[in-house]
Amino acid sequence: MVSLTEIQKERARSVRLIILDVDGVLTDGGIYIGPEGELFKAFHCRDGMGITLARKAGLKTAIITGRTSPQVAFRAEELHMDRVYQGCMDKRAAYEELKQEFGVTDGEVAYVGDDLIDLPIMLQCGFPAAVADASEEVREAAAYVAKNNGGHGAVRDVIEFILKAQGRWNDVIASFYDIEGEADKKRTDGLAQ
Asked: How far apart are CA 118 and CA 129, in angstroms?
């Protein structure tokens, strides 16, 4: 009998594009409004590192969000994400554009969501994932539910799962130990002695 974890890993192995919702996924879902009406959003640094790790492993990354804010555009640019779609209450058109642009099938897409607006894509993509505090319907639709809540490292958790399932995790980690080729230099120096 095949375990749930093996089924999850099998679905994650095909992922080439990771699409993220923002509010409730990359943030805790809170919308903070200043005295002048300006919005504030808190992003978790480990989620940012997760996105960096995914890109380092050659995966494409994108955002599709229902709201529009300059903070999202700034954060996505800072993380060198491949595409950002804002103001998409029906996310399916953006999803189809991303698949076409990156030449991927439904089975090669991971989508991380937290609420009902995310369900149409989650029911279509190959690796739907939910944050721990997602709505019940979203958790039920997910192939993988993160251990962490939205805005608290859930995206990093999902990306780690995907990279480990694909056998890329150790190489990504090793790249942090090899700053500017230092590991190769040490190996070469050791051979000369």
From this structure: 10
